[in-house]
Write a structure and sequence with these properties.
With 280 residues, the chain is α+β, with helices and mostly antiparallel strands. The protein folds into 3 domains: 61 residues, Arc Repressor Mutant, subunit A, CATH 1.10.10.10; 94 residues, SH3 type barrels, CATH 2.30.30.100; 80 residues. The chain contains 10 helices and 11 strands. The strands form 3 sheets. A 5-stranded antiparallel β-sheet has the order 6-5-4-3-7. Helix 1 packs across helix 3, helix 1 packs across helix 6 and helix 4 runs parallel beside helix 6. 21% of the residues are buried.
Length: 280
Amino acid sequence: MIKSIDELQRQIEIVAFVFEHPDKYSEIELAEHFFTSDTSIRRDMKALREMGIVIHSRKHAYRIELTQEQVNQLITTYFAFGNNETIKNLPLVFEKFQKKTLTFFIKTIKAIREKTIMEIEYRSAKNGRLQWRSVTPVTFYNAGKTHYLIAIHHETPKMFTLERINAFRFTGQPSTIKNVPSLGELFKYSWGSYTGGAITKVRLLFHDNMEQYMSEKFWVENQEVKHTVDGFEVTMQVKLSNEFIAWIMGWGKAVQILEPKELVENVLNRANAIIEKYSR
């Protein structure tokens, strides 16, 4: 029987630790590591077995077997999402970290809560090079089909693709970042999951028959909507990301970009490239 959230968290931490280090630690050693008693460890193991987790004890040392589904359930429980949301890109992460997968998520979450620094060896999307980066983790972010680690690197919030993290270390050192931004602050001007880019004023003109649909949509908190003689106009401050440009192009001729000129040129270039490709 789980008596508290702290007890459940400790039990998941024990699973991560033993799963990563099979046949290595006894009850007494686990008790010392988790600052509890060997009796509590026995109770924890009993509770974990009742959850369906396979636990072996050999020569006073524990071994735990987990399926990917169980790893996902334990991570999301530790996240306290509360909606049984699974991490869809976990198989790629698990393929890389194997028995360290659960440890990675749990220790990162602890670093987020305790505002401590972690180090990640990250593969660049541009040149494929691996480089160690010292970051302050902020949160794991669900972008629908994948989860990202949002962390502050060189005073700048960045999104790190979990699959491109090659290795990790936890320093335990307090972060020097005083004001860690919330998700609301990070994505205030973003369209989708991309947090970078310059904030730009955008004015769009939709056909009259789109007025009811557009007036009932909340895109960004700074949006302004009004009916004009030419149609239905939407004004917003937003970052010009690939996601935003793709959304604009998805409307086809139902929308006209009034400003900025940069956005018009970007859409035209992409449209012309598509036409050229399929007209060969």
